[in-house]
Design brief:
With 370 residues, the protein is mainly beta. The protein is 8% helix and 47% strand.
Length: 370
């Protein structure tokens, strides 16, 4: 009997601990829809002075890769296949929310139509950097092939600034030619991140050396608010392990201090003012590496967003927080502007509390649909 009672008590405690606070926003899921967070937190929680009101812009059913924000614009590559011609395409697009359309950028002249983007970066002046990959098959032996790697820099109109074939150069190095990530610092220095090395190039494409890494997988690379490049990865060699963000010291050809991040942090990028902006499946928050503290900005569900669908986060040209969400099942893609608003100016919503033994993306999707 004691064991049975203990199990029931433990189950009840788990349901209580996993309770989910959901705001019932209602409304449609159409274009340019606007939801809001109530200023009454309920459950004895402290009321927030500010909340974030989401503004949704539907950009259609889009297959996206290499997605980044820069200057308030969205850059991505998108693969498509024409069944009639048997030709596949994988161009780079730039979506301008102000204009409301996606522009295919004419970047493939040197790389060739059969090349595909492996990584994309954009600097503050709107210059676009693309790592191109191409598979070349041996016509006499279908099992024999080689990978070619190329780096291109283009101005904001798509005109070539430089184009460089890296294939021979990479064949002489210790790393394979798979570039995991790319980032550009505030002075236009380019970091190509491989499995165990970062190769550095200047703004004209000339090699500036390399930094050796004792890391198996780089999760992200980005430019911080200070103009420096940072990489994130799991530090399995550290005393307590976990995810870290590390400055890339380009001039010194070494990595800087490792800042431990919250365990579930993803989509790590430059923060609104300082530090880093990051998210997990339930919330969006900032992290200050100097104090090693994080601050929650919002809960995704409070903004009618399924956190599992968040592809990337960033800062709009006007300083607003932004996110791109994509429904895994339908490919429906939206840009979400998160407008910081006084809680007293937002209509309060009725709050429902749901008990659940666990939480997954299906339940989050159902909550948003509700």
């Amino acid at each position: 009997m004691k064991s049975s009672k203990w199990k029931k008590s433990a189950a009840f405690a788990l349901v209580t601990a996993m309770a989910l606070s959901v705001t019932a926003c209602g409304g449609s899921q159409g274009d340019d829809k606007t939801g809001s967070q109530g200023s009454n937190p309920g459950n004895g929680a402290e009321a927030k002075e500010f909340v974030y009101v989401p503004e949704f812009v539907d950009i259609g059913e889009v297959s996206m890769s290499n997605t980044i924000f820069e200057g308030g614009k969205l850059y991505y590559s998108s693969w498509s296949y024409d069944e009639e011609t048997g030709v596949s395409k994988n161009p780079v697009f730039r979506y301008d929310p102000a204009a409301g359309n996606a522009e295919e950028l004419p970047l493939k002249a040197e790389a060739g139509e059969d090349a595909y983007p492996q990584s994309i970066a954009v600097d503050s002046e709107g210059n676009i950097y693309v790592v191109w990959m191409r598979t070349v098959w041996n016509e006499d032996n279908p099992n024999d092939y080689r990978q070619e790697t190329m780096l291109g820099k283009y101005d904001s109109s798509g005109n070539t600034v430089f184009f460089k074939d890296l294939t021979a150069e990479l064949a002489d190095g210790e790393e394979n030619n798979y570039i995991q990530r790319m980032a550009v610092d505030g002075e236009g220095m380019i970091c190509l991140v491989f499995e165990n090395v970062i190769r550095i190039y200047d703004s004209e494409g000339s090699s500036q050396g390399a930094i050796s890494l004792d890391v198996n997988w780089i999760e992200s690379a980005f430019q911080g608010n200070d103009g420096k490049v940072y990489i994130t990865y799991y530090d399995w060699n550290g005393s307590d392990g976990g995810k870290v963000a590390v400055e890339v010291d380009i001039a010194g050809k070494k990595l800087g201090t490792a800042h431990k991040l919250p365990q579930n942090a993803g989509n790590v990028t430059a923060g609104p003012e300082k530090g880093f902006l990051m998210s997990d499946s339930t919330r969006l928050f900032t992290y200050d590496p100097e104090t090693e503290t994080s601050e929650e900005l919002l809960a995704w569900l409070d903004c009618d967003i399924n956190g599992d669908y968040v592809e990337v986060t960033g800062i709009a040209a006007d300083g607003r927080l932004m996110a791109v969400t994509r429904d895994w099942g339908t490919n429906k893609t939206e840009i979400v502007y998160l407008n910081k608003t006084k809680a007293s100016d937002v209509v309060q919503k009725e709050e429902l509390v749901i008990g659940t033994m666990s939480m997954d993306q299906g339940l989050r999707a159902a909550a948003v649909d509700f």
